[in-house]
Hints:
With 266 residues, the protein is of the alpha/beta class. It has helices at residues 24-35, 52-55, 86-99, 117-126, 157-165, 193-204, 221-226, 238-241, 255-264; strands at residues 5-8, 39-43, 62-65, 70-73, 78-81, 102-106, 111-115, 133-135, 149-154, 170-177, 182-188, 211-215, 229-232, 246-247. The strands form two sheets. The protein has an eight-stranded mixed beta sheet with strand order 5-4-3-2-1-12-13-14, sandwiched between helices.
Amino acid sequence: xxxxxxxxxxxxxxxxxxxxxxxxxxxxxxxxxxxxxxxxxxxxxxxxxxxxxxxxxxxxxxxxxxxxxxxxxxxxxxxxxxxxxxxxxxxxxxxxxxxxxxxxxxxxxxxxxxxxxxxxxxxxxxxxxxxxxxxxxxxxxxxxxxxxxxxxxxxxxxxxxxxxxxxxxxxxxxxxxxxxxxxxxxxxxxxxxxxxxxxxxxxxxxxxxxxxxxxxxxxxxxxxxxxxxxxxxxxxxxxxxxxxxxxxxxxxxxxxxxxxxxxxxx
Length: 266
């Protein structure tokens, strides 16, 4: 199959989050793809401001950000967006205040901590995402700007699940389990990386059969299922791997490079 476009998840796939590493073999393979005229795109849960360290090494043709809720072209012009409704963000703020949950909103090009500043700050520091991170003690920035998702830090996992179950317009992804908290991404229920990808395919007059997608987590499942070739990382769990066509090596063993070499014979 002559694939024409590649979508790469970042954390746990292309990017080693804990030590800010993209292996050189992965960068070399991506450069070889470009020589063949293949489009190389990011498909990540990260907002734009949390892509800075990665973009210092790679310039993507498109970026599917915030799990499909915010899509940019190579010049970082907006192609598609699906922000949270203003009344929904108000409810999230109120719920977090009542339940003493840490809260951070992503606004596309910036992130604002509302509650539990230092725990949320340390979470961002440990994930190398401190750029354009601010604190809003007035809890009001979302009233003037579109929020695309919320990050909740809480000890009460069951309460978060109950909140999501009472809001059909929302879904959640568990992104971190620590000794003293759970962290959740909260999105519009219709947001998914595959939805963002479809906006790009439409613009480029391509179809899913033209795609190769790489991922390691549950938020990658839909794009792995729909791609002409879905490749799961070796570090993905068995459930995620079950939706892929192939499994490559893990993020520490040049998994993306190995998968690209087999898919494109480079």
